[in-house]
Amino acid sequence: MKKFSLVAAGLITSVSLSLNAATVATVNGEKISDTEVNEFYAPMLRGQDFKKLPEAQQKALIQQYVMQDLILKDAKKQNLEKDPAYIKGLERAKDELLLNVYQNKIMQDIKVDAAKVKEAYEKNKEQFVKPARVKAKHILVTSEQDAKNIINELKNLKAKDLENKFAQIAREKSIDTGSAANGGDLGWFDESTMVKPFTDATFSLKKGEITKTPVKTNFGYHIILKQDSRAKEQVAFKDAKMGIENRLKFEEFQKRIALKGQELYKNAKVEIK
């Protein structure tokens, strides 16, 4: 993405309060609903439903919401809406909002021809490829000897016995606390995700196999268990279509907004000193 990034924030939505909203707090007799709190925290929750959060987390967010609301009311009591800084900031915010609406209207008018989307996919197929990936677990320790001892403890185990013992040792001994809690599980990753020695060792393993020697990186010494692998694969057009369409649409938007700016500039009386 190049310039005119304000368009990324230009989608303005209106969310109406639910008729079934439940009251989660009252402040000086005024009711606050779960819908209000959910709407307020929506950007932070990123799609999560406030009502489905753990009870302790819900209470913390409600308390935070109430405090912010009380501060806002106190600011109004102090007539800060008449403060020059507020007035100036409000005018600036209005201008930004107006610019967003202006740019959004241009975006809405742009239609991308389906044939062009398909053509862009066919001409750039190499860009729409999922890289080869592996699924693995690891145990990370600080000492090479400790790593060798763990490998000796695991080397004669197979299948489920190996998986279970590996997970047990990871939870007990791995210094990578993030993965240790999950038995050393790292999930799926491609060659670009991990440091090279770790990646090379993991991709060279067979499914269900562990490294025969410790793998040294700048983090320490790893014992790796490869669980599964997936070969490189082409992303289907139906899965790439929306992304291509959005890219072509944005490229057209950039052209139109630049031409519009040049046209307005040309027809205005501009003196740069």
Features:
Chitinase A, domain 3; extended; 4-stranded antiparallel beta sheet; Trigger_fact/SurA_dom_sf; 8 strands; Helicase, Ruva Protein, domain 3; rotamase; peptidylprolyl isomerase; alpha+beta
What is the class of the largest domain in the CATH system?
Alpha Beta
Low-confidence stretches: 1-18
Look at the structure and give the mean pLDDT: 90
Our count of domains comes out at: 3
The helix/strand series, from N terminus to C terminus, equals EEHHHHEEHHHEHEEEH
User: How can the largest sheet be summarized?
Assistant: 4 strands, antiparallel
CATH fold-level topology of the largest domain:
Chitinase A, domain 3
Helix content class: 40-55%
Gross geometry: extended
Strand content: 15-25%
Architecture (CATH level 2) name of the largest domain: Roll
What can you tell me about this protein's structure?
The chain has 273 residues and is α+β, with helices and mostly antiparallel strands. A hairpin with a 2-residue loop joins strand 1 (23-27) and strand 2. The strands form three sheets. The chain has a four-stranded antiparallel beta sheet with strand order 5-4-7-6, sandwiched between helices. Strands 1-2 form a two-stranded antiparallel ribbon. Helix 4 crosses helix 9. The protein is 52% helix and 15% strand. It folds into three domains: 5-97, Helicase, Ruva Protein, domain 3 (Orthogonal Bundle); 114-125 and 239-267; 130-233, Chitinase A, domain 3 (Roll), CATH 3.10.50. It has helices at residues 34-45, 55-77, 84-109, 114-123, 144-154, 159-173, 177-180, 196-204, 237-267, and strands spanning 23-27, 30-33, 129-130, 133-141, 185-190, 215-217, 220-230, 233-234. Residues 1-18 have low confidence and may be disordered.
